[in-house]
Amino acid sequence: MSEKSPQFRPSIETQKSNETTERPEKTGQGGETHQQSSDGARLTTAQGVPVSDNQNTLKAGPRGPALLEDFHFREKMFHFDHERIPERVVHARGYGARGYFETTDAIPELTSAHLLQEKGRKVPAFVRFSTVAGNKGSMDLARDARGFAVKLYTEEGNWDIVGNNIPVFFIQDAMKFPDLVHSVKEAPDRAFPQAQSAHDNFWDFISLMPEAMHMVMWTMSDRGIPRSFRFMEGFGVHTFRFVNAEGESHFVKFHWKPKQGLQSVLWDEAVKINGADPDFHRRDLWGAIQAGDFPEWELGVQVFDDAFADTFDFDVLDATKLIPEEDVPVRIIGRLVLDSVVDNFFAETEQVAFCTQNIVPGVDFTNDPLLQGRNFSYLDTQIKRLGGPNFTHIPVNAPKCPFAHFQQDGHMAMYNPAGRANYEPNSWKDGGPRADAEGGFTTYPEAIEGEKRKVRAELFADHYSQARQFYQSQTEVEQGHIADALIFELSKCEVLDIRKRVVAHLPNIDTDLAQTVSDGLGFDEMPEPDAPRRDMVEGLKPSDALSILKNGPDSFKGRKLGILVTDGIDGGLLASLQQAVKDVGGMVEIIAPTIGGIKTSDGKSVSADQKIDGGPSVLYDAVAVMAPADGVKKLATMHPAKGFAADAFAHAKFIALTGEAEKLFHAAGVDDFDDGVFRLEGKDDCADFIQACGKMRFWQRG
Ligand code: HDE
């Protein structure tokens, strides 16, 4: 830090998490109990005054009225009353983690960004993943886009890439954002439905905004229900600029590619996961990082110049369009690793304030009208949400490089300029910071000419060509999921006309898809197709990069096997199966009829992670059922056990069986086993099974 840089330190030491509990001690005052923090620190008020009693308000006599004089009570209660801050208007439900970014391929020829000048440069990072529509307490597996917001604490200031897990957006102009968000969130009169797009208001809006059709194909695809944050791609969405030291500019699009591969769940699973574990995605990220299995993404860039932009079929400033990787390859330049959970959710994940305006020298904006609007919106939102302009003083938002300016005062000011000078220019000897004409951020001097009008560029009017390209890039299984999702969502619309208006857009994307959805909704005939506003681009080649199944994981690493067990199983075989999962870096949970666990045939105890109704098979990537004859008999009388088996099979999961376990499946109505069902007899079978599980699902099951 330079001498002039502010010395900002949080004044309260963050308490380290303490996973163990101690037996509560009696206070001896009315029988109440309290827990002593293990480090034995003395409880104080926020002013630091030692507290003698944290159980009782000050009273006039044991049965007398409480006294206003009790400053400790007042402070504690007032603080509690103010614990909530406004939740984010969108992306309210989110989960963050810390990590680092490391440059793996320097690109000084493209950008002067300090971080990207040299291979091996490393900076701290904070990432917050989120759903968009739901409120803060909504469930994780809503069908929705996911936010993928990255804050890089670089040596030249904070660089925020505030992206999504989908490379395009619903709308083209920021003017429409409040309408889009109002339409998807709960209806204002009844305040439902929450965290879902399957309702009239959303589809009404979409049917009248064909520019949304491309992104709708993405949200209706499996991208809308990711298996976890760890298995998602991230995209900067807009076209940005890189500017090098010579002042030359290139266009750039940002991609985060998960090393874990891409993976999603099925809709029926998503619905059930939301009930079984509404925090499924949170728990997954927390669990993986705590287990030392740090998720990692590569940062890729698609770089192109004006010549490409001028000849591309679509406008590169249009956020409803992407540039296929086959046209402009993604060059990997760095890696992002999340290796640390937060100490405190509120302090970091809730208070982190991303702003698209946060860029660093060497990076610049383009005139994408959505991006321009976002640059305005985010700062405004943070000031409101965090209560004032000093949100940059909160540790998670503060730069980790030297900073110095003359902004002062306001709510919660932690840093004000030292000394007499708080303006510039000034003639004081110690006059504070000065602008740096050479090294400071300069905007790329793009020449601009045009009439001031409320308009959109002509090329923006092609709403279907890339939606078709996306659909055609999917495997048959994925195409089926898109049709199912559209049928599901539109079946939730009460107004027939809205259903018809949406389906009228589909023939422009794919006639088979349109027919399937029309049939699925029980229409007697296809609605008259909506006429495209502009001639579509024919012959766009399918792009493999757009499919999840073509980019899935190639091993069971980072994924979870659920083993349903009963008393009397072969403990050696269980150990072999657990070892086989461990060998490839996967995780195991044991599910048993009671949380107390089971005893193996040789009398050894095995503890359980879940009781059967708390561990349905939807929570696992693959399952095994190990049970001798009497165990199966018992399981077959338990509805959750039958559901475990029936769902695992219906969700095309790889399944392993030992003993008489197949009888549980028969009891659940599954009689015909296929090659996705394995019998485990010995160690080698376990390894073979886990190897097969490397593929995402046994899709042949249909
Ligand atoms: Fe956002 N968006 N957005 N958005 N957005 C917010 O900022 C907004 C858009 C995205 O984890 C808000 O802090 C406008 C596109 C993420 O904290 C708000 C427009 C993309 C997050 C806001 C868009 C995003 C937000 C709400 C259209 C993908 C969560 C609270 C012009 C590239 C960040 C907040 C986090 C959050 C405005 C469109 C991603 C209101 C006006 C496109 C990941 O400022």
TrEMBL record:
Origin: domain of life: Bacteria
Keyword tags: Heme, Hydrogen peroxide, Iron, Metal-binding, Oxidoreductase, Peroxidase
GO cellular component: cytosol
The protein's Enzyme Commission number: 1.11.1.6
Reactions this protein catalyses: 2 H2O2 = O2 + 2 H2O
Active site: H91, N164
InterPro entries (alphabetical): Catalase, Catalase_AS, Catalase_clade2, Catalase_clade2_helical, Catalase_core, Catalase_haem_BS, Catalase_immune_responsive, Catalase_large_C
BP GO terms, sorted: hydrogen peroxide catabolic process; response to oxidative stress
Domain Catalase core: 44-432
Protein family: Belongs to the catalase family. HPII subfamily.
Protein name according to UniProt: Catalase
Organism of origin: Tropicimonas isoalkanivorans
